[in-house]
Amino acid sequence: MNILGLLTALALATGHAAAQQDPRELLEAIYSNAKAAYAERNFVEAVKNFELLKTNIPEWKDNYFNLATAHLYGGSIGQAFEVLDEVVTKYPEDAELASKYCSIIASMLNQPNDFVYPERYKSSQAMLNVCIKAVKLAPEDAQVYITLASLLTLLKEYKAAISIFDDWLLRFGHENAEATRGAKNSLTETLVRNGDYDRAFELALEVFEQDPSPENRQKVAYVRKIGWPIDLMAWEYQKESVEQMVAGYDTSNPLICKTNKQWRVAFNYSQEATLHPDKISVSLLNPETAYKTYGNPNDPVFVGPELKIYPRMYHERWIHLVNIQDAFISGHPGIIHSDCTLYTGSHHVNTDLQSFRDKETEIREIPYRAVSIIQHQTRNYYHWMLEALPKLLLLKKHLLDLQGYEDVRIIVPEKGIAGCIDATLNMPEFDSLRHRFIPYTLPTNTRYHFPKGLHVVDWIHPLDDTHQTLHKNLWSAYWPPREIHHLVRSFFHDALKSRNRFPSLSPNNHVGEIVYVSRLNTVRGFPNEAELLEYLSQRFGERLQIHTGSEEQLEQVAIFTRARVVAGTHGAGLMNYIFAQPGAALVFVPMNPLIEFCFGHIVSAMEGTHYLLTSIPGSHYHGIYETLSKSEMIVMGNTIETALEDVLSRNEGGATELDHEEL
Ligand SMILES: *[C@@H]1O[C@H](CO)[C@@H](O)[C@H](O)[C@H]1NC(C)=O
């Protein structure tokens, strides 16, 4: 029933009441206030009004979803769940309601990057139960059925999801070509998460051939990128997809596309600065090191079969301070654009356009000069520590701390999206900047406008990549310049020193010299990790320190600062290797197929060594490793021992000769 119908019914029911004001008019007024507040993103006000409507018209089902959505966007996800639960409990036989509930949850789970985690508020099983019920109530409804499969995927129940998708295709696959392509696309995603790359590739290609849209092209790139190491096809499909997508953007908005020409994508700030010096300028921050080669042709050591594809040598990137006139940022990764040009920065063709909006959006005017450190996956520890944070450090040094730039504001991730971000930005090291922070909120709906210009720090690899490790490699976009690793290391080491917390690193101190990075209950962890840790503890005693990731930030740094060997499986925690003792070794079980070589790159940047335990079965990108056997634990223990002896023998005479600064 629509609102008017309900209001009429209500007005009739209460028609005899001696109300001062016609209740129907009153409720209509509340409803329009609610809608207006929602449109203005005043969620507190919207919630208040939808709540009033709920009290007055408790039988209006749609209003529960209005209220829940307002809670959700207002950041009160717990309350959103309360309202959703209330309505499905109240109408237990209503298939449409259950299905709506299910798709709201699926869309929550599917938010790109920096958003809430519904799992924190509600058990997966409880969420699933509602969707299972929806299917039972409406067994012939294709939409309800596929929502269940999508939700199962998001809850990591891949096998169950795949069998529902397959069944869906059998039952409904002939009905509507577009819906079927949609289902195949969703199935592709599930297959990738389940590690079925061959079938995912086949399916993505099939959909793309039927409908060569940029999104379908991107899907092919995505499957190749996750399933095949340094894959040229992935790179080419991705590049074309980005170009095609951007070229198709709407040019009718004169504010963001002044000259009303076609949109274009700019992959390289320094090239742009040459082409359009009136719009962009760059200054090189590392003239001494740019384009120099680093790496070690004899590293890594493979304990087990050698991997044929393995990058070892790299060019240092050009690091630039970039100034863009009349810029905008929007979307989750804070995509920078100006006058129908979209800048990808260092993420190059691997830019994430999922949440970019070319259409009208709310514009937030920033009437100051500003800098931004917003980027793809900011809340992931690796991306925060090695990409976003160092950009802030460089901006501080080269711009924000300089005389004449006191007015410059700083666009930072909003509070609460990640503990590591909050912890860093709360450090006294940023006391002098904090009053200039502007949080980047509601990025999917808001466009930030910088009429006074925007500065960023960014880096770019050379097209003339003689080592062929950075160019045409989708993952290398996330590998920062060598210098950046050292910058982050010094920043945190200095932080420890200034607090008198820097550990003493005498050659005879062996406590905590081996750090094992635990990944319990998560992707790419061992199901029997506890047994492994037990074994390693017995073997190495006090020399072993286990890192769980829940330690306070500087404590984490301190733990790794003592490390001579860092061990674990492929995951963001290994990034802490950059804090380890000079010349430290990294020992890890790579994923299989190994597609992201960032940790090998980190080792090269820090001039360390690494050991890849390829004899121990790794999992694919989204998978869980197999249970470790006793003999595999011994292999790991032996490798750690060898690595440690190696580091100690190379460091004979003390660490001083390797790194004066640190002592
Ligand atoms: C970016 O442009 C510079 C020239 O300004 C060039 O040297 C470099 O190779 C380019 N890199 C890429 C990836 O386009």
How would you describe this structure to a colleague?
With 663 residues, the chain is an alpha/beta fold. It folds into 3 domains: 156-247, Tetratricopeptide repeat domain (Serine Threonine Protein Phosphatase 5, Tetratricopeptide repeat); 264-293 and 310-478, no CATH class; 482-662, Rossmann fold, CATH 3.40.50. The protein is built from 22 helices and 20 strands. It has a 6-stranded mixed β-sheet with strand order 1-9-8-7-14-10. A 6-stranded mixed β-sheet has the order 2-6-15-11-12-13, with helices on both faces. Strands 4-20-19-18-16-17 form a 6-stranded parallel β-sheet, with helices on both faces. Helix 6 packs parallel to helix 8 (142-154) and helix 15 crosses helix 18. It is globular, with a radius of gyration of 27 Å. 2-acetamido-2-deoxy-beta-D-glucopyranose (NAG) binds at residues 267-268, 270-271, 274, 460-464.
